DNA sequence: GAGTAACT
DNA sequence: ATGT
């Protein structure tokens, strides 16, 4: 099986490297099976911001820590909000990191974000990690998503691109601290997930 | 579509 | 301010 037969050369958007079609259909289906198992152990929840507003995405995590947000702010926690440990990061997911991250260290957390047709994610930076030099790897599964990439400072010019199922993006080097977000989901654009929607897997090194 | 601001 |  050709897990990493790239359909097109990687693209560099302001230091964010996007590998279009890195994952073939079989690899995508295997990932979805692993994520379903993961979500059975650590159910999706809807986080809220510090001001108590519900986010539109539902999320969970795998790894030694998981990202959470509530009125106390953003942080990595060793347990799911329900009080259970996060499940292990699936090997199928770690293999993708090994392929594209380009560093001699494994991630210690995998954030699982589920976007329904109406879900969005505002522009933000990934900055809750102890060492911001490690790259971030983002895997897209299911419906297409309009991804916006901005600047290190808030505001200014941005570039948007559609992320498709099987695409893998790496935020490293110059791209690591850029603001980014998801503006829109193109409902019905993929049949990978039976109920529709988009799964995004974000691999990070959270600890020191 | 993209950038800014107001508001909660 | 990972909000609308």
TrEMBL record:
Keywords (A to Z) from UniProt: Dioxygenase, Iron, Metal-binding, Oxidoreductase
Domain Fe2OG dioxygenase: 106-207
Cofactor: Fe(2+)
Superkingdom as given in the UniProt entry: Bacteria
Signal peptide range in chain numbering: none
Cited Pfam families: 2OG-FeII_Oxy_2
Residue ranges crossing the lipid bilayer per the database entry: none
Entry's Gene Ontology molecular function annotations: dioxygenase activity
Name of the protein in its database record: Alpha-ketoglutarate-dependent dioxygenase AlkB
């Amino acid at each position: 099986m050709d897990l990493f037969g790239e359909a097109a050369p990687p693209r560099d958007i302001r230091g964010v490297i996007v590998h279009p079609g890195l994952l073939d259909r079989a690899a995508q289906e295997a990932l979805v099976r692993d994520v379903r198992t993961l979500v059975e152990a650590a159910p999706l929840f809807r986080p809220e911001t510090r001001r108590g507003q519900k986010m539109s995405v539902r999320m969970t995590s795998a790894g030694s820590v998981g990202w959470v947000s509530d009125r106390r702010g953003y942080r990595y926690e060793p347990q799911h909000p329900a009080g259970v440990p996060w499940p292990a990061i699936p090997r199928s997911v770690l293999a993708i990191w090994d392929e594209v991250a380009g560093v001699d260290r494994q991630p210690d957390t995998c954030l699982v974000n589920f976007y329904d047709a109406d879900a969005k994610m505002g522009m933000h930076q990934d900055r809750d990690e102890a060492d911001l030099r490690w790259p971030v790897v983002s895997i897209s599964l299911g419906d297409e998503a309009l991804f916006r990439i901005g600047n290190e400072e808030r505001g200014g010019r941005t570039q948007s691109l559609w992320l498709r199922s099987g695409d893998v993006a790496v935020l490293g080097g110059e791209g690591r601290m850029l603001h980014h977000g998801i503006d829109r989901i193109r409902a019905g654009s993929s049949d990978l997930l039976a109920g529709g929607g988009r799964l995004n897997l974000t691999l990070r090194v959270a600890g020191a």
